[in-house]
Structure formats: structure tokens, C-alpha cells
Amino acid sequence: MTWSDASSSGAPPGRQTYFFLSYAHSVPLSASARPDTDFWVNRFFQDLGAAVRRGARRTGELDVGFFDGLVSPGADLKQTLTDALSVAHVFVPLYSPKYFSNAWAVGERDSFRSRLTRLAPGRAARHILPVLWLPLSPWEERPETAQALALVGDGVERADYAENGLRALCKLSAYRRQYVSILSVLAERIITVAESEPLAPSRAATVTSNPVTDSGETALVVTTLTPHDPRWRPYGDQHELAVADYVAATAERLGLSTRVVAFADARAQAPQCPTVVLVDAAIGAEAARDAVDGLPRWAVPLVIAAEGERGETTPEAIAGTLQDARFPQVLPVRDIAEFERCAPQLVIEARKQFLRHGPVDPPDGPAVPRPSLRPAGASDIGRGKEDR
């Protein structure tokens, strides 16, 4: 097939790309950690894009590459990724121990594969270019690992690549020669496939984020406390998703099972789950405090002031009231940038608080609260009723 043969009247919108980069997001070590924990993925994407651009002959007709770091703030991530997967010619997954259990990463791969079903197996395989990003343990070895190594050939580059993974070669100057060599091989393969065997643009299956395996980890609960619609969108047209759905998507990208529930349901589920409560500042400090009274101490609130809304009580005052009620890390946010910056921290803090204070399942009996060194007393306003 030549490039001109790739046109299709039913093609999805948007410029085609040489490659789509897929990876499993890293979970920050703490809520205070920098949200951009995938710095080296971004560096590799830039390096690979530059290498493809140097050798490509069709850059006037299509973009070089895409990864989710290019998604605009407030966009519907699943739809944006599905659109991007529908116009990419080569899928480049960065395989790591977490990739195969990350719902978003595997969802991206399944989505792209949906476009290959009518191709012969050998030709379909050429459109997926696996990279060994982080080495797998011997007991975790998979066929995908061998496929990633086979692209490099034999020699010193392959040995260093197999032992350390491409992330280490990208990071460490001692491996600069090996990194550049492998980068060149990957770029050449992408260019060859995209220009000599292009995929006809076709609608990829919608990216899903269903749990890949049952990890045994308790699902994160996300709920909204607002006098408005539960699918609350305080940032209007700036954000396509409800704030609860955005936080849930953030958690899923980090590999955490998540569900969005109504506030009444959250009351019933929070005693057994890590919980995030998105508080509408319009509700006021006293009403917010009364509403969350009875939630367990590991529930993590975030106070959001809707765009253009000016209530009698500031979000900072509401956050202070909830902090006084002994809820952990209560943060106020006023604009979309603050909200998106806080979302990963919010998820990690909720998980951390649940692991620290949540119930313990004894071998032969129902869950019981973890023991606490805090003295019981009237000052325990914000703690769950089951803790009293």
C-alpha cells in the first residue's frame, strides 16, 4: 500500500501520526511529590520524535507522534486518546512490570489492536513496536519482552538494554551511545512501517479503563458534595468532564481501581474504602462540616470554588473548618490549573490515609478499625462514628 492508498471517506478527524506512545503512569511516592513523575517518558518521546522527524519524508502530511502528555487541560481524555489511536500508524508501548496491570495502558493497546483485525498476523505485528522500558523479573517474563529485544539485534546494546531497560539508558550518560543506537533503530522502523505499509485511517475502539486483573486492592471512592447536579462541572466549557470523573480518570491512569458514587452511597462505602470528597464551596462551611460528619478519618476532602462564584465563605475558610475537624490534607482550589495539579496528589493522599488508618481484615471475622494512639474525646469532630 502506498501513502495515497490510506485515504478513507470514513476516516476519523485529525492529522495522522507516525506513532502513538503508550505507557503506565507512575504513582508518586507521596502526596507532596511533583505530579510530573514521568519526566523520562516525556524525554524519550521528544527524542524519538526528533529522530523520526530527521528521517521522515511525510512530515508535511502528518504529525510525528502523540502521547497523553500532549492532551489539553480539561479535555475528555478517553475520547482524545481514542481519536489519536485512530490516526496513528505505529503503536509504541513502553513495557514495564506495571504496564500489563494498568487499565489505561492495556486499554490503549486493545484500542489500537482493534484497527488491526483485518490484517494478516505478520503485517499487523509490524504496526506494534514494543520497547522494554523497565526490565521484568525473571518470573514475570512475557513474550512481549522477547519481541522488544528482537528489534535491537545482538551485541552490547542488546545486553545493556535487556539488563537495564531503555529508561536507564535514557537517564544515564554512561549509556548514551547505546541509547542513541536503539533510538535510531526504533525511529527507522517507525518510518518504514508508516510510509511503506500505512494503516488506512479507521475508528479505533473506545479506550476503556476496566480493571485488568483483581489486584486485591480496595477501590477508591470518589464523591461530590454539592447543591448542584452530581455531575458537577464548576469550570464550564474549560473542562469536558465532571470533576468527579476527572479525579476517577486520574486514579485509573495511576493503576488504581476507582468508582464514582453519589454522596449518600459514599457514606455507606467509605468505612471500607479510600475516599475522596469534592466539596462545592457554595455549600458553606457549617453545612460542609455537618455533611461530612460521620465519614471516617481517612476520607480526603478537596474544596472547589466554582468559576466566577463568590460566596459568603471562601474555600480557604471551608478547608480550615474541615481541617479543624481532623480531616487530612484539606486543600482549597479556585481555578482549573490548581484543580488538575491537585488531582494526582488527592488520589495518592486518599490511598495513603486509608492504608494508614483504614480497617484491618482479621483472618476469621469482619473488618475492625485500626488501633489508634489518639485519645478519644469531644475534639474528635471529624472522625467517623465507627471510630467513636
TrEMBL record:
Residues 357-388 are annotated as: Disordered. Residues 360-369 have a biased composition (Pro residues). Coiled coil: none annotated. InterPro entries: FxsC_N (IPR047603), Toll_tir_struct_dom_sf (IPR035897). NCBIfam families: FxsC_Nterm (NF040588). This is FxsC C-terminal domain-containing protein. The lineage of its organism: Bacteria, Bacillati, Actinomycetota, Actinomycetes, Micromonosporales.
